[in-house]
Amino acid sequence: MNELPGDLRFTAEHEWLRQEEDGSVTIGITDHAQAALGDLVYVELPEVDQELESGNEMAVVESVKAASDVYAPMSGVVLAVNEVLADDPEKINADPYGDGWIVRIQPGDESVDTMSPDEYQEFLDTLDD
Amino acid sequence: MPFIPHTDDEVQQMLQTIGANRIADLFDEIPKELLIDDLRGVPDALSEMEITRLMRERAARDGSPLCFIGAGAYEHHIPSVVWDITTRGEFYSAYTPYQAEASQGTLQTIYEFQSMITSLTGLYASNASLYDGASALAEAALMAVRSNRRNKSRRVLLASGVNRTYRKVAEAIAGSQGLTFDELPLEQATGVSDLNALSAEGDAPVAVVIQQPTFFGTLERIDEITNWAHAQGALVIAVVNPTSLSLLKAPAQWGEQGADIACGEGQPLGVPLSSGGPYFGFMACAEKLVRQMPGRIVGRTTDLDGKPGFTLTLQAREQHIRRSKATSNICTNQGLMVTAATIYMSLLGHGGLQQVALRSEERTRALLQRLTAIDGVTLVFSGAHFHEAVLQLPQAVAPLLDKLAADGILGGYDLSVEYPELGNALLVCATETKTDADLDAYATALGRHLAND
């Protein structure tokens, strides 16, 4: 398991969130998630300006054998999507915490439960059994 | 591979293993009111002997009439070797081959079929087939909406020459998913879409459907409509007759950018008329849309030893993988019909298919010459057409067709029901199967019935 970047927060749905300086939040899926899915072949992205509701489908990542939802970890409005993924979905496999980011949102008001890198690592350890 | 049903003992053993008493217990979570005990209108089972006799009697009722009906299904000569090969044990299955390790032959056949369809349409990818031409159009419309999310419209604009039965099927399937279907008006002189009406179009549609040749056999101005649709931000769906593609411009060449999706009825490619089915739909699309294509695609790959092999691919949106994410729940691959079509196309080759198309068009011209020589019978639409045309008769169509049927002639498709504005209009078709004597017989009979009234 790669080291988890310290400036990220994590969800039980295997998404990561990074608070940006301008108040926006960047979201992707974790290294664990991309490894479990295998080679990604397609990513269905939300539209810019689309309103996201916490817990609802935000994007779909498709591997050869499965199409999996990516859930919005918090409500908000989509500021930007990673257009590169349309042609290069494997960026998520190669660099899930960097070039493989999925969306950047302007978050809504409510706070959401997320995990620190250490907490997420513990959570992953419970899944390995 | 034999498919042997379970014996009663085996069923009991399986039930015991999982702790159930009866098969019905497996369904006990389904509310009682949703369970159907009897299928209403379906009679009790018959023995093989009884069924064989019933089918023979019904088939005999069809007789062997001379058929001049096209209207979406076409009587072409099917070389006997097509079904001799298709019905061999190795091919004879309608089963979709999910298990690559046990199905290389069938998978390769589908792969060849897809290659032939992409060759005919000029488009990037073809799926392994759909139910029929009409449901293929419905799926194409839904696919266009998924692929064209920037366009918020849910309106699909149909050229006037799109088969109205296809429209009804598309409305039944896609209408419940919020799509509406509108039609462009027909230009009365030529029998193709009125281009002047395009400028009057208000909201940009999400997709424009063009049928070529039209239901009336006429040829649309495909380039103009395609360019207009793309300028509006709409995708273009081409509904095409595969036989005609050996002569006419491939959908990928329509307009400046080409049609985005092509679909149609595959029956003309080696599938007998069979009183209306089973047939199969085909579908092909541009590269950028391939992820939204319903159904399955067979891909060619190499195994760990570097040997070539075939496998279902792009199936992450299939209902057996992820039902809720499926692109379609009715995308069944018509395996047996597709096998026949693949063998038909491989035997004829491009040149053979072109001969079928040319000969059919030539036969239709010869028929029209004979029929329009009869007093009061005129050709309705001017301009180019392909192996099908509309005639205006001096009398109501239906009674005439009955009289012709009594002579053993199926005289065409009565347009006056669906298109009352066309008057006593009859759609006729001749394929390569019709001899001069056949055409003479039709013309003589029609002339006689018209003169007698």
From TrEMBL, chain A:
<dbReference type="InterPro" id="IPR011053">
    <property type="entry name" value="Single_hybrid_motif"/>
</dbReference>
<dbReference type="InterPro" id="IPR003016">
    <property type="entry name" value="2-oxoA_DH_lipoyl-BS"/>
</dbReference>
<dbReference type="GO" id="GO:0009249">
    <property type="term" value="P:protein lipoylation"/>
</dbReference>
<comment type="similarity">
    <text>Belongs to the GcvH family.</text>
</comment>
<comment type="subunit">
    <text>The glycine cleavage system is composed of four proteins: P, T, L and H.</text>
</comment>
<protein>
    <recommendedName>
        <fullName>Glycine cleavage system H protein</fullName>
    </recommendedName>
</protein>
<feature type="domain" description="Lipoyl-binding">
    <location>
        <begin position="24"/>
        <end position="106"/>
    </location>
</feature>
<dbReference type="GO" id="GO:0005960">
    <property type="term" value="C:glycine cleavage complex"/>
</dbReference>
<dbReference type="Pfam" id="PF01597">
    <property type="entry name" value="GCV_H"/>
</dbReference>
<dbReference type="InterPro" id="IPR000089">
    <property type="entry name" value="Biotin_lipoyl"/>
</dbReference>
<dbReference type="InterPro" id="IPR033753">
    <property type="entry name" value="GCV_H/Fam206"/>
</dbReference>
<dbReference type="InterPro" id="IPR017453">
    <property type="entry name" value="GCV_H_sub"/>
</dbReference>
<dbReference type="GO" id="GO:0005829">
    <property type="term" value="C:cytosol"/>
</dbReference>
<dbReference type="InterPro" id="IPR002930">
    <property type="entry name" value="GCV_H"/>
</dbReference>
<comment type="function">
    <text>The glycine cleavage system catalyzes the degradation of glycine. The H protein shuttles the methylamine group of glycine from the P protein to the T protein.</text>
</comment>
<keyword id="KW-0450">Lipoyl</keyword>
<feature type="modified residue" description="N6-lipoyllysine">
    <location>
        <position position="65"/>
    </location>
</feature>
<dbReference type="GO" id="GO:0019464">
    <property type="term" value="P:glycine decarboxylation via glycine cleavage system"/>
</dbReference>
Automatic annotation (TrEMBL), chain B:
<keyword id="KW-0560">Oxidoreductase</keyword>
<feature type="domain" description="Glycine cleavage system P-protein N-terminal">
    <location>
        <begin position="3"/>
        <end position="442"/>
    </location>
</feature>
<dbReference type="InterPro" id="IPR015424">
    <property type="entry name" value="PyrdxlP-dep_Trfase"/>
</dbReference>
<dbReference type="InterPro" id="IPR049315">
    <property type="entry name" value="GDC-P_N"/>
</dbReference>
<dbReference type="GO" id="GO:0009116">
    <property type="term" value="P:nucleoside metabolic process"/>
</dbReference>
<comment type="function">
    <text>The glycine cleavage system catalyzes the degradation of glycine. The P protein binds the alpha-amino group of glycine through its pyridoxal phosphate cofactor; CO(2) is released and the remaining methylamine moiety is then transferred to the lipoamide cofactor of the H protein.</text>
</comment>
<dbReference type="InterPro" id="IPR023010">
    <property type="entry name" value="GcvPA"/>
</dbReference>
<protein>
    <recommendedName>
        <fullName>Probable glycine dehydrogenase (decarboxylating) subunit 1</fullName>
        <ecNumber>1.4.4.2</ecNumber>
    </recommendedName>
</protein>
<dbReference type="GO" id="GO:0019464">
    <property type="term" value="P:glycine decarboxylation via glycine cleavage system"/>
</dbReference>
<dbReference type="InterPro" id="IPR015422">
    <property type="entry name" value="PyrdxlP-dep_Trfase_small"/>
</dbReference>
<dbReference type="GO" id="GO:0004375">
    <property type="term" value="F:glycine dehydrogenase (decarboxylating) activity"/>
</dbReference>
<comment type="subunit">
    <text>The glycine cleavage system is composed of four proteins: P, T, L and H. In this organism, the P 'protein' is a heterodimer of two subunits.</text>
</comment>
<dbReference type="InterPro" id="IPR020581">
    <property type="entry name" value="GDC_P"/>
</dbReference>
<dbReference type="Pfam" id="PF02347">
    <property type="entry name" value="GDC-P"/>
</dbReference>
<comment type="similarity">
    <text>Belongs to the GcvP family. N-terminal subunit subfamily.</text>
</comment>
<dbReference type="InterPro" id="IPR015421">
    <property type="entry name" value="PyrdxlP-dep_Trfase_major"/>
</dbReference>
